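Notebook entry, structure prediction.
Reason for the run: the old model in the group folder had no record of what sequence produced it. Starting over properly, with the input documented here first.
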Amino acid sequence: MCGIFCTFTEQNCSQCLLLENHKLCCKAINNRGPDFQRTISLNVNDLHFIFAVSVLWLQGKNLTEQPVQTNNGTFMYNGDIFDYTKEICEFDPSESDTLTLMRFIESEGIYQALSVCNGPFSFIYLDTQSCKLHFGRDHFGRRSLLIGKLDNMFIITSSAKRKSNWEFIELPPLGIFSYDINAKMFELTAWEKKSENFEQKLKEVESFLNSNINLKDQHNEKQKINFRLPYKEELNIFEQIKSKDFESNIRFLFSLEQWFSKVTLLERLLREAVRKRVHIQPKECSSCIFKKECHHALTGVLFSGGIDCAILAFLCDKFSSKERPIDLINVAFSKTNNYNTPDRETGLSTLEELKELCPDRKWNFVEINISEDKLNEKRNQVIADLIYPLNTVLDDSLGCALWFAARGENSTYRSTCRVLLVGMGADELFGGYKKHRKALKTEGWLGLFKSLEDDWQNLPHRNLARDDRVVSDHGRQLRTPYLDENVVNFVRNLNCWERTYPADDVLQGFGEKILLRCLAYKLGFRKAAFLKKRALQFGSRIANSKENARDISPRLVLS
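New structure, fully documented this time:
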């Protein structure tokens, strides 16, 4: 993982202005990569560039210094390659993904190289042969990249800082953006499958830049998931699961080969997604990175005790050395020093289930207790800048909760993990929100389908980049197994009633996210499998229920 930064302007402008631009983002960039930092300056035709990068070493036998420079260009990469969509070469996790990708770029071209890589990324690449600056994010938008503009200066960066004369937006993950140095114009080569809100997001970027963007390869299709109404016989099985005895309901579903096969396939895909995200990292923790021996925790799980994180913790155990503990990080907020929050209670309950299911594992249950004074202090000092350019009450609550959780520190322990597994994407994929129940009730199956699609299309623009920024500030990497390409492709091609059944005649805690609940039960969870959905901001008690989540948070506004 890395922090990447680029600023550029015409050479007749003072280079001191570019250095000030770098200073604006320098601390946030360096925090993302504690293992290595570098800054370089370049001139291309009549433009002057400053590139800065910080590196958190996670792939390859040795740390790869960035920017990577060759005769063809300068490359900065913040991402992971977990595998390839095509048999272009044998995947070798011991090799630097950055160097591997750079070779692909020079042999196949930037678009072809990035299109076959599975894993999250953002990147900046100055191609001196074509005189173009390329930059962008992966199709799901799992890594942050912002673009800022002031007069004739530009900044492209992983994180920025609130400042009155600069304005930034999150670059939407539409494809590969390019700036043609000779023509002084922006271009976009869209990813193969466009999102449904592609045109809207492109117009937002054009409006921000006050410039038209030349769209290349406009033949690309939209990523369309077809909807059909369920057949009567497909819904008949749900008539048998209206009992209050959840376990008998699941045993009935497991007796149906077609249903059980879906649960089994989901388990296989999630196991592989977790395996890759646990295995692909150095064998030394953040405290021992340059030592020869380490037995500390390498991997942590953001742990509320709900089914999403319970499944991740269980699978993490299967691919982690028994000599190492796994950190289960549980965050709570209080104005009165009472930290017995709903998430603390479910976290401790599910911890007991994990101990029974994985008796040979040492689990570090890390209780993070945050007072109102500490919350306000760190929000003003650091977190508000990381959340920026987002600014709602919901961004405030979730961003702060995740920042303190990712810090993983209390009075007696500081997490040593370099990788933090989180359950992001599970509610969007498996239908875990209350609005999904409302959509089914008021608009039927088509309404539920549209609600799930809207949530999926908006996920990159609402959560993922913000969460990447706040977690990475601690030199840890956010990894999201539910957003693995193979998991996503499987789940999104299921009919919506095969993912979730939030009907009023099925009790809450069972019908919603029904497929994932079945998997949790199959793995051995008898309590966590039936816990009702509870959002992080409410389970940790950071949120004020009297505030509207969509309103601008006055606590994030620069005074």
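Summary: The domain at 2-222 is CATH 3.60.20.10 (Glutamine Phosphoribosylpyrophosphate, subunit 1, domain 1).
The old model has been moved to the deprecated folder.
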